[in-house]
Amino acid sequence: MGRTLLLGLLLALSGPARAVPMDALDPATRQLVETAQAAQQAHDWRRATAAWKLVLGKDPVFPLAVVGLGRAQEAQGDKAGAARTYGRLPADPDAVEALARLVEVEDPARAADLYGRLQSLRLGDPEPHRLQVEALTRSDPKAALQELGVWLALVEGEPDGRTIIDVALALRALGEEESARTLLERYLAAWPEGTEAGEAQGRLDRMAVETAARELTVGASQPLSARQQERVEAARRRAARGQAEPALAELREVVQEAPRSADAWGALGDVHVLLGRIDEAERAYAWAAALAPEEATWQARLGLLLADRYGGRRHREADELLSRALALRPTWSELRYRQGQVRQGLGDWDAAAEAYEAYLGEEPQGPFAEAARQAVADLRRTAPAPPEIPRIAAPDQDMPAEALDHYRIARVYWDQGDMVSSRSELDLALAQAPAWPAALNLLAALHMRAGEAPQALDAWQRSLAADPQQPLVKLNLGQRLRQQGDLPGARALLDEAAQGGAEDAWYLLAEMSWQEHHLLEARRYLDHYAAVSTGGISQEPARLLRGRVEGRIRLVEGGATGAVGLVLLGGGAWLVRRRTGRTLADLVARAPEVSHDLARLLSAIRHEVLKHNTTLLDEVAQALENGDHHAVRWAALRLFGDGRGSEGVVDRFESYLAAISRLGRQHGVRLDLRRRDPVLAPMWRAMRRLRGLARQLRHPAGAGEGVPAELRRISVSLNDQGYQALGRLVREMGTLRLDGDLLRAVDARVRSEPAFDGEELPPLELDVPEQAVPLKVFRGDLEDIVANLLRNAYRAEVEAVGPGLRRVGLSVFEEEDEITGLEHVVLELRDNAPGKLTDAMIRGRSIGRGLGLAVDLITRHEGSITVAPAREGGLSWTKAVVVRLRRAEEGEEP
Amino acid sequence: MSAAEHPRVLVVEDGHEYITNLQRFLGDDFAFTRAGDGEAALDRLAAEPYAAAFLDMRFDRAERLLGDLDELVDRFAGDRARARRFLEDHQGTYILAALRQSGHLLPVLFSYDFDGEPRRFRNLATRWGDLAYLSDTAGPAEIRAALLALVGG
User: Fold this and answer.
1) Residue A367 to residues A31, A304, A307, A337, B38: CA-CA distances in angstroms?
2) In the predicted model, is pLDDT for residue A894 greater than 60?
3) Which of A380-384, A594-598, B5-9 has the highest mean pLDDT?
4) With 70 as the cut, is the pLDDT of residue A395 above it?
5) pLDDT value at position A14?
């Protein structure tokens, strides 16, 4: 709530909107403006330049045209021309800002001056101050620090943490370490859960480690003795065999003995990674890197850890570390490829392409060569020239001219991205010509853009009824039916489309046959496609599909007998099906161990992308309607970045999707989050629609009338439906029903372990409610907790209590905290071994590794574990280990 | 309604965000007063009557916290930092308990979204009565309506 009110306050404080000059233009000039805007929309910069120049010929200081021409010149690489153009209006805030952004990389001091001028043109607006801080960061960090204070005094709500971090880094590079540290600490104190708090804390921690390392180290990292080296190697081997906990204990001892050994710290970090303790691993690698700054290995390990395990949030730091590693070891080609991936995640496309190209320069046939080439091709690909819009065929004699006019206007609005106006015009056209296929096809496209698939299908079907000879419409309709699961209907339409000349339909039929395991049929369709295809987006997928089909056919044909081949075919298909999970539910079902990381990423989307950002969409819509363009531009910056590498919310969402896909691949599951997942696919579509509005929001003066309504619709998709759906999914993932069967199964597993071979273990005295209790914990974690507690109890019994006298009991009950209202499920494990376990031991971790793991898991789930005197039968029980875990809420229960 | 007749609402928060925005957007309908922690809230209520309380949940900036820290330290096996964090994160409920135990039965509106914790909210409402809460997406209109419903407007 607070955030919503704060944004409203910001809007209320904003100055009045600039008068929109469009109304004052004569019709001819207005037409030129519309032409220029349409050309911009289509990235036809030469046409846009020509149109803007014509406008300026009539009015040399028309602000919209000045800024438009400057942008078109920039897009064509004419920076000098753009600078002269912007310079025409030294008192127009948009022109001043555009000029400042143009020069800020090459001449940050001049950019800082321009931002200073912008402050007086946009009084009270904190953004020019922030931009000035950023420019000064490059030219005069101390001045940036001073200006930072002015900016922060103006900002309402959470400031842009990246700006603060950049100033801190610049100060540190200048040798002002204390100032840098103080700045980061103040940011974290004021915004402990700020968007960049993770990175700020990470940098602060590393600064502390590097400082401590400098104090600790005299000269280079301390070499290990031969014996210590053996112990480290032995620990690595043990960890590789799955004995990570003992390996960890061993390495901790070595680090205690040799705290200045980068190798010991590095090995410690590796084992922490195996155990999934990422924060511990980061600390260990940071120590290793600080102790041996000349060694590329630790810089790279740390950089890759930040890249792989933080969902993209720490890519900036990761990139810096990888650059350092490559500076130390330039021939480390694999690292260049990884750096390319990191930079792509950052949205720094040019730098990513350079990294990939550097990799290819060294390893043209390397393991990542194909992927790198594809990435470079995608990154360097330029937008195609806008297609010629074909003249509309001469309408039937009976077609009312007015319908044709309305249709033409609808097409123009469509080109400009104004879907609402396009629809209005189209409705008027269809009112007069309800069976006109061209109009119905445009109607279907509008419905698809709005996410109204059923209405789109209806429009296409009406179009086909009026004119059955439309292979492309059949192709579209067939694809939609396939998505809806109507495979027979889809197949029939795609077949007609293919016969009618829509070449991509052959490819889609091949894909359907492949998925239904009809290999020979798939091959035939691919042959047809190859015979008629002249290019297009299906070429590459068809080539890849061909590889898979032929490979599978060879496998079948190479089988010992036809029967064996059929079995292989079936088995192989099952294997493919088993390993191809499309949804998050599939991933969790196939790889439950992924739940922690997945829940973290989904929660991050919910909080960082939705709750703290897209909730402002309604306010943006309101600001547009009120003509408050400054607020809209501010929001556009937040949503889409500045177009020069700084990431917006929409990009961050894509980064999270990429991180989730990688998580799936790491567990052998290929996800299709954008099309198939019932939670993320609708959100992705909504984000795509939002991205489609970027241009209009960046330049709100030219925004269409339908934009506010579209923003509100997107807001509903994201902030109501998406937010709730994500919350439900995260809650469902982390709950299970605890009952006696589960506990007995865990007990049976522990009893069958080799350590208890031949031992007389007492029967487990189980006291659980009749109804299963819903718990807020991942199944695997609960089983580990219970198993480790049982193991501990049985071991204590075997060591200290005679056979026949041993007792172990486990009770489960529910408890409500009288003050907080929180409900817990209590697992109380009792035994009668002489009490060796205390709270102090748990606190100080003077416990075995198994119990230590249980404690970690309990803490991770916000539970608690204590040792208490047993509740009942004082003489027979000596102690109770009491574990409290959160009870699942209504709606969370599995 | 004159300013003097506006229902008086005690805003209990460890910062000034809520009081600032409530006064700006709803200042024509209510008279807001701030208390920075539970002790200050009890003092205010002892001194003068209020129609309702607007209560934050998390108090990580407050120096004084209500609740038995030592008992929580025991619960968390001696982890004092974790015990304090627990008190901070759920401080609103401790303040609510203190208000009720001191005999202050005024209706309370939580700024915390219990949509994901319906059982918890029911437990609190059953024990302490006359409670309501705001969802995360509540705007000024919803807050106004919630407060009016509580004060009987």
Assistant:
1) 54, 18, 20, 10, 63
2) no
3) B5-9
4) no
5) 35
Assembly ipTM: 0.93
Q: What is the DSSP letter of B27?
A: T
Q: Which of B31, B35, B28 is nearest to B9 (CA)?
A: B31
Residue of A nearest to B25 (CA): A5
Residue B116, chain A, CB below 8 Å: the answer is yes
Q: What is the pTM of this model?
A: 0.42
Tokens standing for residue A509:
């039929």
Model confidence at A142: pLDDT above 50: yes
Give the gap in angstroms from C-alpha A837 to the nearest C-alpha of chain B. 12
Average pLDDT over residues A731-751: 88
CB A29, CB A52: distance < 8 Å = no
CA distance A813 to chain B (A): 17
Q: Is A18 exposed, middle or buried (0-12, 13-18, 19+ CB in 10 A)?
A: middle
- Specify the long-range contacts of residues A150-155, CB closer than 8 Å, at least 24 apart: A151/A126, A154/A124, A154/A125, A154/A126, A154/A129, A155/A126, A155/A130
The beta strand positions in A298-389, using DSSP E, are none
Q: What is the rounded distance in angstroms from the CA atom of residue A246 to the CA atom of residue A853?
A: 12
Among A66-70, A434-438, A826-830, the range scoring the smallest mean pLDDT is A434-438
Those residues whose C-beta lies under 8 Å from the C-beta of residue A425, and which sit 6 or more positions away, are A406, A407, A409, A410, A413
Nearest to B116 among A615, A727, A820 (CB): A727
Q: Are A820 and B90 in contact (CB under 8 A)?
A: yes
Calculate the dihedral angle through the C-alpha atoms of A9, A15, A21, A22, rounding to the nearest 10 degrees. 0
The token pair at B122 is 């029911």
A865 CB near a chain B CB, below 8 Å?
yes
d(CA A100, CA A131): 9
A839 with B78: Cβ contact below 8 A: yes
Inform me whether the pLDDT recorded for A572 exceeds 80: no
Q: What is the pLDDT of residue B51?
A: 96
Q: What is the mean pLDDT of residues A49-59?
A: 84
Contact in structure between A855 and A848 (CB atoms under 8 Å): no
Under 8 Å CB pairs connecting chains A and B tally to 86
Question: Rounded to the nearest 5 degrees, what angle is found at the Cα of A781, between the Cα atoms of A779 and A784?
Answer: 110
Decide if A651 contacts A347 (C-beta within 8 A). yes
Minimum Cα–Cα distance from B19: chain A residue = A2
- Amino acid identity, position A492: A
Q: Provide the pLDDT confidence category of residue A540 given band limits of 50, 70 and 90.
A: low
- Say yes or no: B27 contacts chain A, CB-CB below 8 A: no
pLDDT tier for residue A537 given thresholds of 50, 70 and 90: low
Residue in A with minimal Cα distance to B136: A1
- Which residue among B24, B60, B137 sits closest to A719, beta carbon to beta carbon? B137
How far is residue B91's CA from residue B69's CA, in Å, rounded to a whole number?
12
Q: How many CB atoms lie within 10 A of CB A802?
A: 8
Q: Where are the beta strands (DSSP E) in A393-530?
A: none
| pLDDT at A562 > cutoff 60 | no
Which of A799, A801, A809, A806 is CA-nearest to residue A747?
A: A809
- Supply the pLDDT for residue A221: 63
Stretch A512-524: mean pLDDT: 85
- pLDDT at position A320 over 70: yes
**Residue A9 to residue B27: CA distance in whole angstroms:** 14
| Residue type at A646 in one-letter notation | S
Q: Is residue A339 very low, low, confident or very high in pLDDT (cuts 50, 70, 90)?
A: very high
Per residue in A641-671, pLDDT (tens digit) is: 876 666 788 988 998 998 898 888 877 788 8
The closest alpha carbon to A37, from A620, A700, A639, belongs to: A700
Report the residue of chain B nearest A6, measured CA to CA.
B21
